[in-house]
Specification:
Layout: H1 3-13, H2 16-19, E1 28-31, H3 36-47, E2 54-60, H4 67-80, E3 84-89, H5 99-118, E4 122-124, H6 129-141, H7 146-149, E5 155-159, E6 162-165, H8 173-182, H9 199-212, H10 217-245, E7 246-247, E8 255-257, H11 259-263, H12 267-280, H13 287-304, E9 308-312, E10 315-320, E11 324-329
Parallel strand pairs: 1-2, 1-4, 2-3, 4-6
Antiparallel strand pairs: 5-6, 7-8, 8-11, 9-10, 10-11
Binding site for ATP: 33-38
Catalytic activity: cytidine(34) in tRNA(Ile2) + L-lysine + ATP = lysidine(34) in tRNA(Ile2) + AMP + diphosphate + H(+)
Protein name: tRNA(Ile)-lysidine synthase
Length: 366
């Protein structure tokens, strides 16, 4: 067996669980930009002998003058293979800060909605081991916790009845480039991948230097796998602790937790329980702000049994003897241009060079 045979077979085999399931489902939506990764995804899905409907979509972010032409090229390629294609337009105003993060979020939202329209059970993307290593490094620079350092999951929920799958996450990008070459495919080269305005592109140029010092893509992905295991254990423990601490809420209170139940928790679990409570109350402050509230204020108040009142993420967080820890909407601050916790508000650029927000919750939209 030649190297080409092995590479071709391994790449196509990674699509088999999605496109030839033991339990038939509503089909698969392939996210294809026309680059080497997604071009390989499209052809490998077909060559894997799909037994469920395959659909193709390209998200046109409207960020480059050639994007419409590239989407049209993918549409022609899909139709030539006998597959339906839809170009999904991102028509919302483009932010001046955190553009790539906003584009990713918009892309997944558009893909999820179209998959729901189609009745597709999966959205598949062409993310590779290289992408995973870059994501972990970006989140490391952002000061993320285990959830962020776990990187991209190979599978995760995307929307109601729709899952996101990344069948190539253990493969190197070079393998997919070779796959396209072996099939005489000519992918599109996206110039933004080398644009130094974007943090991911800057880090991509540094990766060979970091690898020489031992920080290789293999080790970054190993770190992601270990953090994913730890994050799963912490998430399960926090869910159980939250369920044990939750109490009925009334009046303006959105969430109420039992103080003695919280007092007995390790800090790592307490942080996640309070983050979960804030999420249930509609708030999503950054990890360092939650840590500051808990380690500086809440933990000492729980230990001493003293009163506490703070605002965080638009929530009024109050600790009392009789009511425990309660979260209610914070009163508006007239004329304030800061967030409810007294710190400057702004967009959360968790994966770029923006405000350096760390990460704790469900997966970032990569």
């Amino acid at each position: 067996m030649t190297a080409w045979d092995f590479d071709l077979g391994a790449i196509e085999a990674s699509l088999v669980p999605f496109v030839t399931p033991t339990t038939p489902h509503g089909g698969v939506l392939l996210a294809v930009s026309g680059g080497p990764d997604s071009t390989a995804l499209l052809h490998a899905a077909l060559r894997a002998g799909a037994t469920v409907p395959l659909h193709v979509a390209t998200v046109d972010h409207g960020l480059r003058v050639t994007s419409a032409t590239e989407a049209a090229g993918v549409a022609e390629m899909a139709r030539g293979l006998g597959l339906s294609h839809r170009t999904l337009m991102w028509t919302a105003p483009k932010p001046g800060h955190g553009l790539q993060a906003a584009a990713r979020a918009a892309r997944y939202n558009l893909l999820a909605r179209y998959a729901q329209d189609l009745g597709a059970a999966w959205v598949l993307t062409g993310h590779t081991r290289d992408d995973q290593a870059e994501t972990v490094l970006l989140r490391l620079l952002a000061g993320s916790g285990p959830a962020g350092l776990a990187g991209m999951r190979s599978e995760r929920p995307l929307a109601d009845a729709v899952q996101l799958g990344r069948p190539f996450l253990s493969l190197r990008k070079a393998e997919l480039v070779a796959y396209c070459a072996a099939l005489a495919l000519i992918p599109i080269q996206d110039p933004s991948n080398a644009d130094p305005r974007f943090a991911r592109a800057r880090l991509r140029r540094l990766m060979p230097v970091l690898a020489q010092e031992g920080l290789s893509d293999v080790r970054l992905c190993r770190l992601a796998a270990r953090c994913a295991r730890d994050d799963e254990a912490l998430t399960q423990a926090a869910a159980a602790a939250y369920a044990a601490a939750i109490r009925p809420a009334d009046g303006p209170v959105l969430v109420r937790l039992d103080a003695p139940a919280l007092a007995g928790l390790p800090d790592a679990i307490l942080i996640r329980v309070v983050a979960r409570a804030l999420g249930a109350a509609g708030a999503s402050p950054r990890l360092e702000r939650i840590e500051r509230l808990i380690l500086k204020d809440l933990r000492p108040a729980l230990d001493a049994g003293t009163f506490l009142r703070r605002t965080l993420g638009g929530c009024l967080v109050t600790l009392t003897r009789g009511r425990g820890l309660t979260l209610a909407p914070a009163p508006p601050r007239a004329g304030s241009v800061t967030g409810a916790d007294g710190l400057a508000a702004g967009p959360r650029d968790l994966l770029g060079k923006g405000d350096g927000g760390a990460y704790i919750g469900s997966e970032c939209p990569d």
